[in-house]
From TrEMBL:
This is Uncharacterized protein LOC113863570. The keyword Hydrolase does not apply. The chain crosses the membrane at residues 14-35, 56-77, 83-100, 157-183, 190-211, 255-285. It comes from the Eukaryota. Keywords: Membrane, Transmembrane, Transmembrane helix. InterPro entries: UstE-like. It comes from Abrus precatorius (Indian licorice). The lineage of its organism: Eukaryota, Viridiplantae, Streptophyta, Embryophyta, Tracheophyta. GO terms for cellular component: membrane.
Length: 329
C-alpha cells in the first residue's frame, strides 16, 4: 500500500473518530439546554424528565446506541474493529464530565476537580501510548484478540462481534466509571482516604507509563536489530518487567482501584464491581498474552524460565535458581 493511500486512510479514520461521539454530545447538550431553560417546557417532556431523574441509565443508553451500535456498524463497513481501542481512553473522560455536569450532581468541589484532572492525565498517557505503539496511525489495525476471535467465529463474526467486543466494553467502561458517578452524587468533606486514593491513582499512572515506555523501547530496539539482520532480544526482563510479567496491567489496575477508594470513602463500596470485573478481564488477557508468547518457538524456552522466576502481576522479587530446584524436587 502506497504512502498516499496510507495517509488518506489515516486522515479518514481521524475524521471518523472525531465525528463519532457527536450524537451523544449533541443529545446531552440539548438536554442541558432544555433543563436550564423554561422549567415548564421540559417538565412536560417525558424524555427530558426521564433523563433528569436517571443519570446512570442515561449514560448506559447513550453508550449502547452511540458506541455499541454505531461503532459496530462502522466496524462492519470498514471490516476492522479498531475504534474501540482509542476510545477506551476517551470514554472515561466523557463520563466523568457527564456525571459532574448533570443537573442532579452534588459533590465536593475539590474532590471532583482532582478526579477530573487525574482522569485527563490517565487518558492522555494511555492515548499517547496507543498512538506511539501504532506509529501515530489511526485504525491501522485492530487488536490481535479481535482478529483471533474473528478467525474462531468465521462467517458468524459479523454479528458475533457485537456481543464479543462491544457489549462487554459497555459493562466494563460503565462499571469502571461507577466511582465517577458516586463522587458526583455525594457532597462530603475531603479526608485522609482521599489522599490515599490520590496516591494509588498517581502510582498506577506512573507505573503504567514507565512499563509501557520500557515495552515500547524493547519492541523498537528489536525492530532495529531485525533490520540490521542481528538476533533480537527474546524476553523483556529489565526495569519494571524484572519484578513482574505484566507491570503495565498492574499500573492500570492500581488506577481503577484508586478510584474505588474515592467511592469507598463516600460510603459506596459497591462501586468496586467494575474494578473487580476489569481485574478478572486483565488476568484472562495476561493468560492469552502468555499463551501467545509460548507459541513462538524462538521465545518459548526463555519465556517458560521467565514465568518460573517472575511474579505474574504484582511486582515482587525473582525466584532464585535454588528455590526453583526445591520446588521441582
Amino acid at each position: 500500500m502506497g504512502s498516499g493511500s496510507v495517509s488518506y486512510r489515516n486522515l479518514k479514520n481521524v475524521i471518523v473518530a472525531f465525528l463519532v461521539p457527536l450524537p451523544s454530545i449533541l443529545f446531552y447538550l440539548s438536554f442541558l439546554s432544555a433543563i436550564h431553560g423554561d422549567p415548564s417546557s421540559w417538565s412536560r417532556s417525558t424524555l427530558w424528565t426521564w433523563c433528569y431523574h436517571h443519570p446512570l441509565l442515561l449514560a448506559n443508553v447513550l453508550f449502547f446506541f452511540n458506541v455499541n451500535l454505531l461503532f459496530w456498524v462502522i466496524a462492519l463497513i470498514q471490516s476492522c474493529h479498531w475504534m474501540i481501542d482509542p476510545y477506551w481512553t476517551v470514554i472515561p473522560v466523557m463520563l466523568v464530565h457527564y456525571y459532574s455536569s448533570h443537573p442532579l450532581a452534588q459533590y465536593e468541589w475539590w474532590r471532583s476537580r482532582i478526579v477530573i484532572l487525574l482522569t485527563w492525565v490517565w487518558s492522555i498517557r494511555l492515548l499517547h501510548n496507543y498512538l506511539r505503539r501504532e506509529k501515530w496511525q489511526w485504525g491501522a489495525r485492530e487488536d490481535w484478540r479481535s482478529t483471533h476471535m474473528s478467525q474462531q467465529y468465521g462467517s458468524h463474526w459479523w454479528w458475533a462481534s457485537f456481543f464479543a467486543i462491544y457489549l462487554p466494553h459497555q459493562l466494563l467502561l460503565i462499571g469502571l466509571s461507577l466511582p465517577f458517578y458516586v463522587i458526583h452524587t455525594v457532597d462530603r468533606r475531603l479526608s485522609i482516604l482521599d489522599l490515599v486514593a490520590i496516591v494509588v491513582c498517581v502510582s498506577g499512572i506512573v507505573i503504567a507509563y514507565i512499563a509501557d515506555t520500557q515495552l515500547y523501547n524493547f519492541v523498537s530496539r528489536n525492530e532495529e536489530l531485525k533490520g540490521l539482520g542481528k538476533p533480537v532480544v527474546l524476553i523483556l526482563d529489565k526495569g519494571l518487567w524484572y519484578y513482574c510479567r505484566h507491570p503495565n496491567y498492574f499500573g492500570e489496575l492500581l488506577w481503577w482501584w484508586g478510584l474505588v477508594v474515592f467511592a469507598w470513602n463516600l460510603g459506596h463500596g459497591w462501586s468496586f464491581v467494575g474494578a473487580l470485573a476489569n481485574t478478572m478481564c486483565l488476568a484472562y488477557v495476561s493468560k492469552l498474552v502468555e499463551e501467545r508468547m509460548l507459541k513462538q518457538d524462538c521465545r518459548a524456552e526463555a519465556f517458560r524460565l521467565y514465568q518460573k522466576t517472575t511474579s505474574v502481576l504484582v511486582p515482587w522479587f525473582k525466584s532464585s535458581p535454588l528455590e526453583l530446584k526445591s520446588k521441582d524436587a
